[in-house]
Specification:
The protein is built from 13 helices and 9 strands. By secondary structure, the chain is an alpha/beta fold. S-adenosylmethionine binds next to helix 7 and strand 4.
Length: about 325
Amino acid sequence: MQIRDALIMGREFLNLHNIQSANLDAQVLLSKVTGMDRTGLLLQGDRALTAEQQQQYRSLLDRRAWGEPVAYLTGCKEFMGLDFIVTPAVLIPRPDTELMVETALEYLKKSDKGNPLAVDVGTGSGAIAASLAYLVPGLQVWAIDLSNEALEIAKQNARLHRVEDRIHFRQGNLLKPMPLEMKGRISVMTANLPYIPSGDIPGLMSDVKDFEPHLALDGGIDGLDLYRLLIPMAYSFLKPGGLLLMEIGPGQGEPASKILPPDLWQTEIKLDLAGRERLVVAEKNKNQFKQQKDCGFPERKMAATLVFKLNGI
Ligand SMILES: C[S@@+](CC[C@H](N)C(=O)[O-])C[C@H]1O[C@@H](n2cnc3c(N)ncnc32)[C@H](O)[C@@H]1O
């Protein structure tokens, strides 16, 4: 079979199975099998495939027809212009999440001239942590995940981009694995934690709900359970003026903002390229730091009382 015929056959087969990106997927899968890029495939359409290549291609097409995401089939996904290894142990990094990295980069460029410190909680494939370390020389990142399998992939990605010596990988729940001496010292914290409301999971596309890890998706009744727990912890680790970035879905901007007390945080909601709410940008207020440090966290109510007293209220 020639490349040209294989592409037509693959496209038609995937179309029959209602795969929306049938043409592109057929090209990407044949690239994987032949080692040729997509332009090469189009330019060398009359080249013949070996019997082994035909068999591998058919097997990948079958798996794609059953809904398996292309990134799991190729083992690779591009994010921030870098290639990342992905397996079913990790969520496939989404282009929408680049907004979070771009926001962190902008902030670090403006505000931190030394060797800044960052935390990426729920690191998954490590795409956010490794992109930040790759793009900000001298940045040190703590990359935390509950899943050991995900951390193994994140470590491979850090090695791939030669940033493993500046990323501290830790297994555990939210910020529990953070060294206490880092309190009040972190410049930026990125959190793409699960934020899909539990009730919405059954209605997700099959390639997400049947193939991606549920530990990476389910955010509780309104999707914000983990952010509710994270915010007070994040407050104590960020330095005054430090940034907490949390990815959200459409409709979660207002409820997420309500979890961030305005006396402690300045909050903004950013939209993605499709105009949907995508990112909570919360800056830790500078002028509250002294009182918070005295009180400690998570005793936020005590801290707020002290602020009122100091203000003579
Ligand atoms: C939505 S995925 C994001 C992965 C990656 N940061 C990205 O943007 O592609 C969420 C990740 O959070 C991890 N996670 C879920 N609950 C967690 C918790 N309580 N503490 C730390 N990590 C958690 C999951 O294992 C998963 O890797």
